[in-house]
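pinging the channel bc i need a second pair of eyes. not urgent but kinda urgent?? the chain im working w is below, pasted from the shared doc
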Amino acid sequence: MYFVRKILIIAITLLFVAASISSCTFNYNYDGSSNATQNDTENNDTGNTEEGEQDMTEREVTMITEIEVREFNKRSIYLAGGCFWGVEGYFQRVYGIYNTEVGYANGTTETTDYYSIDSTDHAETVKIDYDMSRISLEEILLHYFRIIDPTSINKQGNDIGRQYRTGIYYVDEIDIQIIEKVLSYEAEKYGELAVEFEELKNFIPAEDYHQDYLERTPGGYCHINLALAYEPLFNDEYVTPSETEISNLLDKESYDIMMNQATEAPHSSELNDEYRKGIYVDKITGEPLFSSSDKFDSGCGWPSFAKPISSSKIVEVEDNSFGMVRTEVRTSGSDAHLGHVFDDGPQESGSLRYCINGKALEFIPYEEMEERGYSDYMVFCD
């Protein structure tokens, strides 16, 4: 396979026209009018679309739009997972990642190129730039382990050699604890891992013809199923009950909040002062929505979180009710109203504040998570 790639690359080089290929970026919504009001009441017209029913082409076109990410929310991680064409193509489809660049990392020299990495011992690596307010490093690493064989040494898919080894290379020491946590989590599933874990060194961007390869060459060689990027990280199914079942399941106030967009009184929820370790789930389906590690005291009177437990768990919808422009937060599973998101949260956590009605949530203590079927989500709570 190595020699086939060499031939392909020579052909691509001859055909390649030097141009600036913009990196894959995503369109986020940063409105929220944090100073206008903290009232969570809004109309019923959510404008929600069924994203899951779109085919891959439609979703790609929708996601690839250039936006400005706030400087203090920019983070980077470098991942080696075999052929960097496929790794880059996968992460370009993950919400919250605004830029990617393929290159060669953690070799023995400060310079190299594709034809020299055998002797310089660099790994094919993807630099991933992400918006920490939209996706966590934990979620990115869980995506990473989904697309690699973490026990394979110097081999991923059909590609064999040191350049195809797996590795996580960090640039910020604050990431070390998170990476170690995820590695321990994955080791419990797979046993001994063959994934390098090192500080980044000697990263050299790859040649232009390698950048955005699968965007420019649809159907090109790829050892990864790119469609997985649109699938939930965990194989759990949460069934939404019928409207009659929901009315029987919920108390009157919870029903009015989740189904009729009502708002609980500030400081009325017992979850407002809940700071034990655990997760907060959809009261209708039981689907995990938020983690205790992202909860903070905002002083607004409602439970507040810096981000959802996973970017796929919620839907954000523009809300123009009451003469304001706000962003409503709904569950992606049951399509129930939760609250609103504002942009006045702690800057060190991404500057967002998910202001959520406590009556829409159920708290699951960490000690009960495994027994109740939430063991996969324990990694988000530390």
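so The chain has two domains: 2-26+64-230, 243-380. and The CA atoms of residues 258 and 337 lie 5 Å apart. — does that match what u expected or am i reading it wrong
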